[in-house]
Amino acid sequence: MTAETTVQKPQLGRKILPGIALLLSLLLLPFLDDAGDKPFFLAIFLSVWWQGWKIGLFMTFLSILLANYFSADSSLLPFNDFQDWQTLGLFGAIAILAGQLRRERQNLEQELVQLQAALQESEARFVQLSDLVPAMVWMAGTERLCNYFNQPWLAFRGRTADQEAGEGWMEGVHPDDYQRCLTTYTTAFDRRQRFEREYRLRRFDGEYRWVLDTGIPRFAGGGQFLGYIGSCIDIGDRKTAEAQVRQLYESLEWQVKKRTQELEAVNRDLESFCFSISHDLQAPLRQISGFTALLQTAAAASNLGDPEQHYLAAIAKTSTQASLLLQALLAFYRQNSYPLRYCFLDTRQLVQEILGQFCLSDRPIDWQLDGLPVVEADPILLRIVFQNLIDNALKYTRPRSHPQIAIGSLEQAEETIFFVADNGVGFNPKYTSKLFSVFQRLHSDSKFEGSGIGLASVRRIIQRHGGRVWARGEVEGGAIFYFSLPKRQRCPGPAVSLKTAS
Questions:
Q1: Helix (H, G, I), strand (E, B), or coil: what is residue 450?
Q2: Span 359-371, pLDDT tens digits
């Protein structure tokens, strides 16, 4: 006997039994005077409910035919007139509806079973996956109480799930972090928001470890709030490293501050020494210049030879250069002690006044002044900056038959950038870092005179204003010198009179 035959026999029995029940109910109707048609209609419903409306109705009509065939007195059976058949049709329709409802119920029950199985499988997969991840996973219901912890959490805590359930896990939170931890959680829970919190959690060995706890709300497909799910990671090593870095930074900051103070003290002493030397050397130089002038006068009267007169002229020139250098040094160091007096200054007017001080009638120069705004700066020191840069441009464009000098500015969000550009002899870009140092010159005195202090003064003044200086150039390709002035947080007022400021 095959398995298919075994399956078919119960199905055949399910189809035959309703028919037999219907037939018996019809044959018994003549003996149930008070019951009327109720037993038969009850048999119809049971047949439809048991087997479905199609086979149930088929068995109903088949039973009626068989009952009329086997009954000795068919007049005693129902459905012998039109009214009985109408009643049968009505009950048949009701039976069809009942059968459909039963089928839908069976389908829903089957879907429910499948959904429950899928849910159980999904929950089992979630538990397996959460136990495999290195993070500590937890879940909480709609009452804020935790109802699930994965194995890494339980292993970290050294406790059972029952011990951790509800608010049991809060027993492991460090007392200093407890209230902050709880407040963060309850606030986010009430607002249904994501949260992050760092706190110390006691490990199985009694050590408190820093953990980073992240939680997000869970919602059903229809938007129903289901609670929270979150994960914790041990950040104790990171916290230790951060503390070490912070301690190292504070130590380095203290050392840098101390070293800076020492360097400032040394720099002040050096500047004071240089200022004293520069001041004290002026008197001997004046004497040398004076005696040299007297010797030159006497030599002219005594017909001194050319070599001797050349020596005297060299001494006079050298002493004059030394005197000018000392004066420049004194001016350079005085700038450091000069207090800054900020005011609003029209840089276009300032540049035009400086240009008027230079004797430029013998040289046709193409000047371009563009975008020179009102700025807030010290008028005396800013005048020195422009004087030095313009003097540089005039000096290094002397070899040009058509010199061009442009002075302008560029507006930035936090600062105003000024520039002085020329088409002069330029400089080698690899020596740019030396341009703004004291006594650093990229051209010899025989070609271009200078003290080597002008650009150093520019840098010192701009640095005192909180700005910066830089330059670009090419050999025989001209040069551009830049400096910036920060925009101060005061409302601009009227520009100061330059004559008054001077």
A1: coil
A2: 665 778 888 998 8
Q: How many CB atoms lie within 10 A of CB 285?
A: 18
Structure token pair of residue 401: 């038959």
Residue 147, both tokens: 């109802």
Report angle CA 44, 49, 50 to the nearest 5 degrees: 100
Residue pair 374/487 in contact by the 8 Å Cβ criterion = no
Fold: same for 133-234 and 340-501 = no
Residue ranges per structural domain of the chain:
10-123, 133-234, 248-335, 340-501
CATH class of 133-234: alpha beta
Q: Measured between alpha carbons, how far is residue 63 from residues 22, 34, 237 in Å? A: 6, 21, 85
Where is pLDDT greater, at 372 or 45?
372
| Class of the CATH domain delimited by 340-501 | alpha beta
pLDDT digits (tens, 9 = 90+) for 91-146: 566 666 666 666 777 778 888 887 777 777 766 676 667 677 788 999 999 999 99
* Helix, strand, coil percent values for the chain (each to nearest 5): 60, 15, 25
For residue 462, what pLDDT band results from cuts at 50, 70 and 90?
A: very high
**Cα–Cα dist 285/305, whole Å:** 25
